[in-house]
């Protein structure tokens, strides 16, 4: 019962996020923005759908139960949700599940984006491990962690090239490491 309540809440959250992303996409398009890398987006959506299907099948078919480490795992999951909300709130109307570029606006570098280039991708990577492990669905955790690594190996370079249309991203963003910014260069600019 706990599994179904938990998974229903997580799926509901994803559906709300998709709605927010669609609203933001429309706004960005009306401001003169455009989408980049739409060819791989369907694979990201498919991967996330299959993640939930795989999780449900593994938990139900193999009669998996809540991990004995659930207090720690749930706490870590709750932290990822705070990170997700922080990332979403920090980008506001610029947040999206697609790569949406608005060349006339400055790249948003506040909230977690001051510290990590792709905090939302880190949150997703952690969720793909934590959610299945919470219910001892280790096969799902391994498969979808590997699939996510493959998808991000395509998506992140596309996103970074697309963001290079912004002068300030060229000056700061391209010299940062993949996930962790070079704080010394950022501090020198301040």
From TrEMBL:
Organism in which the protein naturally occurs: Fredinandcohnia salidurans
Transmembrane segment boundaries: 42-61, 68-87, 121-147
Main localization, broad class: membrane
Any one of the GO BP annotations: methylation
Lineage, top ranks: Bacteria, Bacillati, Bacillota, Bacilli, Bacillales
Gene3D superfamilies in the record: 1.20.120.1630
Highest taxon of source: Bacteria
Name of the protein in question: Isoprenylcysteine carboxyl methyltransferase family protein
An MF annotation (GO) of this entry: methyltransferase activity
Subcellular localization, as worded in the UniProt entry: Membrane
């Amino acid at each position: 019962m706990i599994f179904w309540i938990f998974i229903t809440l997580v799926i509901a959250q994803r559906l709300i996020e998709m709605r927010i992303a669609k609203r933001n996409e429309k706004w960005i398009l009306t401001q003169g923005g455009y989408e980049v890398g739409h060819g791989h987006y369907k694979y990201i959506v498919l991967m996330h759908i299959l993640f939930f299907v795989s999780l449900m099948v593994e938990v139900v078919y193999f009669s998996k139960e809540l991990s004995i480490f659930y207090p720690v795992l749930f706490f870590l999951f709750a932290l990822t949700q705070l990170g997700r909300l922080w990332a979403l709130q920090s980008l506001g109307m610029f947040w999206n599940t697609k790569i949406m570029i608005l060349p006339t606006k400055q790249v948003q570098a506040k909230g977690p984006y001051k510290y990590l280039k792709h905090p939302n991708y880190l949150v997703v990577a952690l969720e793909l491990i934590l959610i299945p492990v919470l219910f001892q669905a280790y096969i799902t955790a391994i498969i979808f962690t590997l699939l996510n690594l493959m998808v991000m190996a395509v998506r992140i370079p596309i996103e970074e090239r697309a963001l290079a249309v912004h002068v300030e991203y060229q000056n700061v963003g391209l010299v940062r490491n993949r996930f962790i910014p070079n704080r010394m260069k950022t501090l020198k600019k301040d």
